[in-house]
Specification:
single chain; 117 residues; alpha+beta; six-stranded antiparallel β-barrel; 23% helix; 41% strand
Amino acid sequence: MQERRGEHRGRTYLGCRIAFNDHYARVGCLVRNLSQNGAKLIFDWPVMVPSEFDLTIHQKGSRRARLVWRREMEAGVAFLELNASAVVSMDAVRQLKRLEVERDARARRIAESDGQA
């Protein structure tokens, strides 16, 4: 098989999760190799995944990924943002989600108070 990657991928054994459909659908998987630009994922069973999804690698953070190739229980993905700053810690993701919930609650309260005036 001809190597088509532009960058070497280091071998890993990291737990990960893919999320799609606005994070309502989640599937656990394993990262077997990883580079700045992509990864190879291994699934426990055959899984249908969309062409784009969020990939959260435990201890590494979350990135948006695009499916490049697929076999029965493995897949190759390319990261959509190709720089190191695209990796976001889980703490930052949780804080961002919390702030979004607070913002939405504040907007509802403002809308309710405008409707009563």
